[in-house]
Structure formats: C-alpha cells, structure tokens
Amino acid sequence: MQQYLELLNQAKEILQRNTITVTVNGKLYERIIPSKDFYVHQWLWDSAGVAMGLVHLHEEAAFNELLSLIVGQWNNGLIPHIIYNPGESKYYPPAEQWQTVGFTRDGIKTSGITDPPLLAIAAEYICDHASDEQKRRDFINTFLPSIMAYHDHLKCYRDPEDCGLLTIVHPWESGTDDSPRWDSLLNRIDLNMIPPDIKADVDLNRKDIKYQSSEERPTRADYYRYIYLINLFKDLAWDYTKILHETPFAVKDILFNSIWERANEALAALLQRYGNQEEANKYQRWAEQTQEALTNTWSEEYKQYCDIDVTQGRHQAIAVPTNGIFMPLYAGAVTDHQLDMLLHRLSNADEFYTGYPVPSTAINSRYFDKERYWRGPTWPITNYFIIEGLKTYRGRHHHADQLANLFMQKTIQMIRANGFWEYFDPLDDGTDDNAKGRGFSSFSWTAAIFIQLIKKTQHSK
Ligand code: GLC
Questions:
Q1: How far apart are CA 274 and CA 392, in angstroms?
Q2: pLDDT of res. 24
Q3: What pLDDT was estimated at residue 434?
Q4: CA of 64 to the centre of ligand 1 (A)
Q5: Strand partners, 24
Q6: Predicted local distance difference test score (pLDDT) of residue 155
Q7: Which of 119, 154, 279, 383 has the smallest set of CB atoms within 10 Å of its CB?
Q8: Per-residue pLDDT at 254
Q9: What's residue 339's pLDDT?
Q10: Which of 40, 45, 46, 50 to probe ligand 1 with, by most ligand atoms within 8 A of CB?
C-alpha cells in the first residue's frame, strides 16, 4: 500500500481535475468527465465505473456522480450514453447533432443511444462500501425509481422478443466502438450510399484526430458510418420500435448483455434490501433469463461465446476473438467445459496472454492492431470485468483465481509503469523504456480502477 501512495494521490488528483460543476434547473451538480482533452462530457458507463473508485475516497461524491447521471434520463426511461455539458466544444459530434431535447427534462442535452448498463452495479457497490446510512437511504430513494424505469425501458424496447438478450443499435452502445466484432455489420453500410453532407461534416468537424494520432483511433470510414446511424435514428424521431426494425446495425452483444445480467442481479439485491420483494423477483428472473441466454451463445466450433447479428430478421453468430468473449464470466454464465476453454485461451501466449494482458483482440487474429483503440490495445476497464469474472469462479477452478490475481497485478503494473492512460500497448512487457500508454492521458476511469484494484489487493491479504 505504502509503495502505491504516490500513485493513489495521482489518481485522486486526476479525478479532482476532471470534476466539473454544472447547474441544472438552479441546482448545482458535480460530475466527472473521462478526460479534459476530448471526452469533456459525462459518459454513462465511465461515470458509473468512476463512482465505484470514488466511494473509497469520498462517499458523497460517489453518490452524487450517479445522481448527476440520472439527471439526463429521458421521460421514457432511457439513460443516454452522453450527457452534454454546456459550453464545451472539444468533442464531436456536438449535442445538436442528436436532436433529443424534446425527450429530456429541463432542456438537458444528451445523446440518443445508451451505454453498457453499469448503473445498478455501481449503485450496489457504492451502497456496500459507504458507511453513512442516512446518505445511503437518501440516495436509494431518488435512485431506485429511475434505475427501475431505465431497466424497464431497456427490456421493453431492446428485447421485444423476450429472449433475455438486449439488442444494441450502434457500436458506441457496446462501449467498444471500433471492435472487429462489428466489421461485418458496418461493412454492410455502403459508403457510397452515405450522403455527402455527412461525410463533409465528419471531415471538417471530427476532433479526436486533431488531438491524437489517427493510428490510435477509429478510421474515417468508421466515423462516416457512426454518424450515418445517428442521423438515421434522428430521422426516426428516436422511436426505438422503428429503429430496431430499420437499423442496419442490430446486435445481441455479449459484453453489453453480461453487464445487463449483473445489473439486474444488483437491482434485485438493492430492492430486496430497500424496496419491494415482488419487484426484486422480477429483476432476478430477468437476470436468470439473460444468464441462460448468454450460456447458449457458446459456439463449440469457435470455442467462444458469440455476439448475434439480429439485423432485419437475421440470426447469425459473430465469432471474432476479442476480450468480449470473457465477459460471460462476469455474468456467472459459464459451464465447467466453457470455463476450461476460456482459461486456456486466457493463458495462451499466442492469443490473449500478452506482456500486458488482456488485449482487446487476440494477437493471432487477422484483425489485431496493437495501436488502434478496441482492435488490440489492453483496456483497464475490460480487465476489471474479466478479473471480477474470474474471481466469481475461483471456487470452481484454482486457475481462475491465479489468473485473476495475475491480471490484477499486471494491470496495476501497466498503469504504474506508464501512467493513467485510456488504453495500453498489449505487447509491451514493461521492459521498453520508450513504451507509453495510448489514447488520452489522465483518464478518469483508469484512475478509478487503479484505486479499486489497490483496495482489492489490500483486502485479499
Ligand atoms: C470511447 C470508448 C467508450 C467510452 C468513451 C468515453 O468512446 O470506446 O467505451 O465510454 O470513449 O471514455
């Protein structure tokens, strides 16, 4: 612990520096943005993750982080993936691009899609770690109705077939924007069909590559398609029944759904403690349904769980070897046989066991690119879920526990050696003095995960 004191202080400073204050309807909110360099608004799953680290430093700030997120909730229950901060222009696309103002309250500007639904998980974690009973109760009273409305919205509009798996309609909803998992779907959107004004807008206004090497970011074609989808949904007036019907991108994402499973368990647990037993049973049933559905996405041919392309009536497995295939560990959806296979792949130096594991794409895959965003680099945020998932199985397989501890140490080491970057070179093994992290630096979620991991190593002693 002593050896990490300075780094813990740095993590704390990053969170402080990335905190901004906004006034909504005369009320003051503090919220933490992912990075001052580009991501200058509030992102749903980043904020939820950040709140989990923050509770170890400042309980009230952690509760407020989640409360400031639900301020952006739509009248129909959706909690969008970005809540825009007024007066900021560093990020593209701007708030106006989405045309969502009629859906939100108090004129708040948001995106129109969501993020992996980490909120209930964060709420449970914070309630478990906070000591002030009164603050916990106040938080729960405001938070529970909102989070139930959010889950109900997702279940109704994203799983109309009631199969247990939600459908995402934009790569940004997966949190893993340019993952090769999405290539086959995105390639269906013919670039020649994308209106010239969309391309011109992207070419002129895209900001990320102004601040950072384009080698580390999604391609121009990716961005044309991202913005094309947003415009399509906007034209459908954010009616999700129509959007699911018309979108060229509709997927049952295993990462998103693993978080959905765990989030319903968390919500059920919170309701059991603070709410109504019948409601708790409902979310617990949803969790069980999702767990089973995730188990069934396993492909024996590819030895992995598969996302399912459900675009316009399809039902086609997407078998790309990314770190997403380990997410069902987090959802407790793994059989003994599947566990053996996953542990094998995680320990394989030709696939996922690299200098700094776990790469976002297997290094022997033709899609692997060690620099580019979700196509190779190692991300602390996904490592966190894999570590937690492996811990769930420690009683079933001693190797699961060993790997969880190893990945925990390596993630700490990766941040210690390079700094609090957004993502990292997976092939670096700590011996290259010129190695550096990738993406944006002073990244909030990396700082928060560092705090959580140090706490965990303390407790496991
Ligand atoms: C990128 C990441 C996403 C994250 C966002 C803000 O879009 O892919 O996961 O939420 O940045 O940090």
A1: 25
A2: 79
A3: 67
A4: 21
A5: 27
A6: 98
A7: 279
A8: 98
A9: 98
A10: 46
Q: Which two tokens stand for residue 31?
A: 């919220």
**pLDDT score for 460:** 64
Supply the residue whose CA is at minimum distance from atom 9 of ligand 1.
175
CA distances from 235 to 6, 41, 171, 243 (A): 50, 24, 18, 10
Q: Which of helix, strand or coil describes residue 82? A: strand
Which of these, 103, 66, 71, lies nearest to 85 by C-alpha position?
A: 71
Question: What is the phi/psi pair of residue 130, to 5°?
Answer: -85, 150
Residue stretches of the chain with pLDDT short of 50: none
- SS3 category, 225: helix
pTM, whole model, 2 decimals?
Answer: 0.97
The candidate with the shortest Cα–Cα distance to 438, out of 391, 368, 379, is: 379
Name the residue with the closest Cα to ligand 1, atom 4.
175
Query: Does ligand 1 come within 6 angstroms of the Cβ of 175?
Result: yes
Is 45 close to ligand 1, i.e. is its CB under 6 Å away?
A: yes
What are the angstrom distances between the C-alpha of 104 and each of 71, 76, 401?
Answer: 9, 9, 44
Residue 418 CA from chain centroid, whole number: 22
411's tokens: 């993630």
* The token pair that represents 119 in the structure block: 């909120």
39 Cβ below 6 A of ligand 1: yes
Q: Among 38, 43, 226, 323, which residue has the most ligand 1 atoms within 8 Å of its CB, making it the best to mutate?
A: 43
- Assess whether the C-beta atom of 216 lies below 6 angstroms from ligand 1: no
* Contact by Cβ (8 Å): 311, 250: yes
What atom of ligand 1 comes closest to residue 45's alpha carbon? 10
Distance CA 334, CA 340 (A): 10
**Beta-carbon contacts of residue 161 (< 8 Å; ≥ 6 apart):** none
Active site residues: 177, 422
Task: Read off the DSSP letter of residue 297.
Answer: T
Among 416, 420, 359, 350, smallest CA distance to 386 is for 359
Q: Which 3 state secondary structure label does DSSP give 335? A: coil
Give the Cα separation of 83 and 319 in Å (integer): 33
- pLDDT attached to residue 28: 87
Pocket test for ligand 1, best of 45, 172, 206, 226 (most atoms within 8 A of CB): 172
C-alpha triplet 34, 182, 260: angle, nearest 5° = 60
46 lines ligand 1 (CB under 6 A): yes
- Please count the other Cβ atoms lying within 10 Å of the Cβ belonging to residue 163: 15
CB 439 less than 6 A from any atom of ligand 1: no
Q: From the CB of 256, is ligand 1 less than 6 Å away?
A: no
Residues 403 and 409: their CA atoms lie apart, in Å, by 10
Nearest atom in ligand 1 to 175's CA: 9
